[in-house]
Amino acid sequence: MSEENENIQFQLTDELIEQVEQFIEAQNDKELHKLLDEFHYADIAEILDELNLEEAVYVIKLLDSDTTSDILMELDEDNREKVLKQLSAKEIAEEVGELDTDDAADIIAELPEARQKDVIDQIEDEEHKAEITELLAYDENSAGGLMAKELVKVYETWTVAGCMRRIRGQAKEVTRVHSIYVVNKEEKLIGRLSLKDLIVAKSEQKIADLVKVNVDFVNVHDDVEDVAKIMAKYDLEAIPVVDENQILLGRITIDDIVDVLKEEADKDYQMAAGITGDVEADDSILELTRARLPWLFLGLVGGIGAFLIMEGFEGLFTGKAVVLFFFTPLIAAMAGNVGVQSSAIIVQGLANDDVRGSVNSRLIKEMLLAALNGVILALFLFLFVWAFKGEINTALAISVSLVAVIIVAGLIGTFVPLFLNKRGIDPAIATGPFITTSNDILGILLYFWIAKMILGI
Amino acid sequence: MSEENENIQFQLTDELIEQVEQFIEAQNDKELHKLLDEFHYADIAEILDELNLEEAVYVIKLLDSDTTSDILMELDEDNREKVLKQLSAKEIAEEVGELDTDDAADIIAELPEARQKDVIDQIEDEEHKAEITELLAYDENSAGGLMAKELVKVYETWTVAGCMRRIRGQAKEVTRVHSIYVVNKEEKLIGRLSLKDLIVAKSEQKIADLVKVNVDFVNVHDDVEDVAKIMAKYDLEAIPVVDENQILLGRITIDDIVDVLKEEADKDYQMAAGITGDVEADDSILELTRARLPWLFLGLVGGIGAFLIMEGFEGLFTGKAVVLFFFTPLIAAMAGNVGVQSSAIIVQGLANDDVRGSVNSRLIKEMLLAALNGVILALFLFLFVWAFKGEINTALAISVSLVAVIIVAGLIGTFVPLFLNKRGIDPAIATGPFITTSNDILGILLYFWIAKMILGI
Question: One short Pfam family name for this protein (chains A, B) (predicted)?
Answer without folding.
Answer: CBS
